[in-house]
Amino acid sequence: MKSIFKIVYIVFCIVFTFVSLCSCNAKTGFNENAVKISVAVPQSPSSYPLMYMIKNNSMQDFAVETQLIPYSSNDELNQMAVSNQVHFMIAPITEAIKIYNKGVNVRLLGVTLWGAPYVISSDKFLNDIQDLRDKEIAVSKEGCLPDLILRHILIGNGLNPDINLKITYMNEADISNKLSAGEILYSVSDVNDSASILTYTNYYYFRKDGFDIKKRLSLEEYWYKLTGKPGKKIPIEALIAVGDTIENEEMVMEFLNKFREGTKWINSNTSEMKHIAIEYFPEYEEQEIFESLEYANLKFVSPKESKKDIEEFFNELLKTTSIDIINAKLPDDNFYYK
Length: 338
What we know:
Elements lengths: L1 H27 L7 E6 L6 H8 L9 E6 L3 H9 L5 E5 H9 L4 E9 L3 E4 L14 E4 L5 H12 L9 E4 L2 H10 L4 E3 L2 H13 L10 E5 H9 L7 E8 L6 H20 L1 H11 L5 H10 L1 E5 L1 H15 L21
Parallel strand pairs: 1-2, 1-3, 6-7, 6-8
Antiparallel strand pairs: 3-10, 4-10, 4-11, 5-8, 5-9
Helix pairs in contact: 2-9, 2-10, 5-8, 6-7, 7-11, 10-11
């Protein structure tokens, strides 16, 4: 009798385990082929929604892990895309288009970061772009969007950037040191470098009386005046799908929904976000993270909604910039994920 009960018990356990496994697979779907989702990221606010997603295990139905793979140069980003090292990437909009125009299998999933940079300065009398005439201005990355936008606006306001003023290229650390020491008075950088500069010069350097380094001129406002389109958005960075990832529509849509959710949460919880971001960018100070969020216009906009903004932006910028920045042409409709 005992042996019969023992057999029944064993059968019950086997059936229960089988049902549980089936239930688990039905719920998690993609976990039966457990993968890691890899995302190439710069040190930028566009990466912050991904940190929120990881913290909340947002992609658990599709992957055992979502991992961030930092890159420090556009060449490194290009290599990741060409060799399919990642599923997704956060990229400067110029690089995303350039990679696509090379024939690499990538798609735009949405624009993540918007807006033109500021002129950061200790000059309290700087009130107009014309005040930069005959001045020296430090720029952190030659040929990147902040540099190209600055040059475009200068030209549009009758200033030749190679004649009427001096643009000097230097890294973010040198800009911070020279601004703090008063060796240079003006700078333009991307969101991340600007946050570092403002943090260093205003929080970790002895500030002299009346020596206040801050955002003085919004180049975005001058862009509006130049184009005659107030409020027209300037795309800076984008979320991109790479290679075969594009074919997995269910995963891509879930990723987009969670990324959008993360973006909304961050914009409402900047103080909490800086504690999360510091885990992934430990070399940063919390104040830098906070400055970057204050400085950035972090907003996720779909391909359909951002396509016109992207095309209008480049049609304007290419009036003063070589089309080589996007590898000879604007992308066709296939670039935009549907």
